[in-house]
């Protein structure tokens, strides 16, 4: 598990710099794994090869200010990742309910992504949490509503596909945002 | 006619009106659709009529889907008629309109009011949809899907997995497509999906294709005589998982199924029942199995727990415990599986509430492992599972008696040898050996302690034995932590003996040895073997043979091809062993590894080949003989095949010359590479001398007879070879000519000077030869020589073999030189001719300008006249005469030849004008020369 100790995000010490670097690596790894998970899903369900869903993002957040600082962006990212964790958790539950507990490549990678996203959440929580900011690293999704408002296994597959696209998107966003934070903190450390 | 038709029409109309009034129209038509089964239950009130026409249309396009006459009976309670119609397409696909009319024979009532079964393609439902959703079918079941495109959108395509399907339009928005004979689906099903005209317009359904449950081997057992554990095998994969997987129940109670290996399933039931029913059910069907048994007949004890052992050297006590106390009163039978390094055995024990077993006949100092399983002794059903395996080691015991032998090299030296212990003979780690030598005659005793790695003890009896006939006994004991082994004793033989060996062949992987011996013996035999060529510290092996056995096959992994082994049979091994018989043999003979050393010598005109023996270690087989070959380098010509005890061979009557001989020794495996020696056969010395003497004698004898004949015929010889020559008569001094001599020379004495550029080299001619360079090969190669080979040889027979060689390679230079200096390199003095002419004929090309010189013997003049005349002014009358002269060559060698210093000069008048000057100049020069040289 990633370190969970609380630190001042603006302290700018060396260990904090290492932690942001580790968070960047984790986010990049998550992006790779979620992309691979999406690829495995497409191979399994051939009909998604040329499918581009519309309807916008499942996870969408709005910043408090029009030009949020990097720290605010990371906080926003943390919130988005929590929802993503809830979504992938829900995907796992629904798929296991539908197909049973399988042990294929897709299921293995799905488990990896779930765990990796949990590590990343803990890492960002450790990065940003201070006395004034309390963050959660638990899934922010109840997994109770119908998937995309309709029943049926095909709808579940469509929804799973959208969740996986969302994961790839947020993992990429996490890698970029955390790298930005890392660069800023590294700059402060050098100054 | 027209009137008739009108009348008939009126009748029919009347009947129709009557029928409509009489046959009731179906009332209260209602529709009830079952979306899962795709069936519509049509219900109506129709009175007593039993036959009805049903018409089903797709509402939007008014397509007839079903139009048939059906026969129904009214329900006794409600009095309503029912008909269940199954749609090919899902009922959600489009709205259906249904109406019914009664029929009596050909007469029908009016149609009932139209009833509509509402589909999902109505404008109020704008979404894009595919039906049926999540349908589960058997493999091979044709399934029709329909796609309802979104309101205001266009249909794109319909797909099943990766296949595009043909569609049928059902309504404005609904399209149907059929999937034929699908195979069993993967766990996540087959996707059937519909696309619109944009990439975002896609929706679909999943089709699951699988089988109903099928189980076998359903059995219920009990471990504790109270509860039951039932298990079965899934005989077929249903291809349905998760929500759709097969659910099981036993005796109506749902099972929490545990999946075991190889499709084994297990379910526990808390209380035993004598009758069991397993029911498997999924969306495609159900299957059930039953089992009936009393609880005492299905007891399978749980694996024993807490297994432990206590072992001595040859015995172990295994104990275990039970999870359930119920077993203490249960008659059990248990198996203990005992595994050692090379063996596995099962030993069975029984008893009420059995908790231990004693394992006997174990090997000392041996690693074992044990595990236990049990079953009910009464009404045995099957063994329970094995307990965990535990290991133990037995304790040490004293070693077994060592196997001892003695091998004597001679009367006083040898070695006591004993075999290393095999597995399970040492009964513990050997820490050493103790060898005792003692003489019962004088009580001498010597003890030697030998390390555990040594298995021999060298013997030197000279220091132990007091007298030649003293007995000496060797005793060997082995030591391990448990103590000493029983001693192995052997009495040393008094004298070393050796016998002639028999040859023994290796057959079927062994050396078969057999012998005859006194049948009354009771002390047994020992067969000992070792490498026959071994001299010191030989590795000796032996086996002991019972006294009633007279043959044995000796096998050993140590036997190697090409090695000679010696086998010795001894009698009474524990007493002083007596050698009875010896054999020698090879496991497999090889060709000799080295060749003979060959030497040759000439004996008169014969060649004697001798060779040495091959060293015994190189023979590698029983030597059968030698093959002698004449070796010409590339081929061996066999000369003889000799037995192995011959070491020489004589090759007789060889012509003089060089020879090579090869001798190859051979065994049953073949020849070796062979030894080769060369010799040059030279003439025999004595014969050479005799030949020389004989030749000399014959020569002397011939000369003697020749001399004798010459002597006897000396007058004839003289007249024939040396006739008297008359003295020349000179009236005055003749050196100066006093006038012209008009003597026509004889044609036989004319010398023609031929000086034609077109001189024919093919014609014979005599040439003048200078005195120098007689044997110069280079000169002989000059053109002038090769042009006249016959002339040269001819001349050589007469005078000399020296060829003529032009002095000057440049003819003009030569000519100039001759003219200017008035001399020539050719010396003409001392030339002897006899009855022939010598003609100097230079190369007409090279020497065209040279003076022509002709020599002519005066003999012709002598024969044709009474005196001699100077020859300085001869004339040839005609060319024919010159030709005639050439034909007189046979007169050469006549004893009438004389020596002359006169040059014979040709007459310049016959030559070309250009040459006359040269000739005259040469004549002048010659005349002066002659004048100066004449005495």
TrEMBL record, chain A:
GO molecular function: ciliary neurotrophic factor receptor binding
Naturally occurring in which organism (per UniProt): Knipowitschia caucasica
UniProt-recorded name of the protein: Ciliary neurotrophic factor
Region (Disordered): 1-20
Compositional bias (Polar residues): 1-12
InterPro entries reported for this sequence: 4_helix_cytokine-like_core, Ciliary_neurotrophic_fac_CNTF
One GO term (biological process): ciliary neurotrophic factor-mediated signaling pathway
From TrEMBL, chain B:
Transmembrane segments: 687-711
Membrane topology (UniProt): Single-pass type I membrane protein
Biased composition (Low complexity): 810-821
Stored InterPro entries: FN3_dom, FN3_sf, Ig-like_fold, LIF-R-like_Ig-like, LIFR_D2, Type1_Cytokine_Rcpt_Type2
Cellular component GO terms held in the UniProt record: plasma membrane
CDD domains in the cross-refs: FN3
Region (Disordered): 770-935
Acidic residues biased stretches: 770-788
Sorted UniProt keywords: Glycoprotein, Membrane, Receptor, Repeat, Signal, Transmembrane, Transmembrane helix
Biased composition (Basic and acidic residues): 799-808
Gene3D superfamilies per the UniProt record, alphabetical: Immunoglobulins (2.60.40.10)
Signal peptide: 1-19
Main localization of the protein described in the UniProt heading: membrane
Ranges where the Fibronectin type-III domain occurs: 300-397, 398-500
Biased composition (Polar residues): 824-849, 857-875, 893-903, 920-935
Family: Belongs to the type I cytokine receptor family. Type 2 subfamily.
Descriptive protein name: Fibronectin type-III domain-containing protein
UniProt organism field: Knipowitschia caucasica
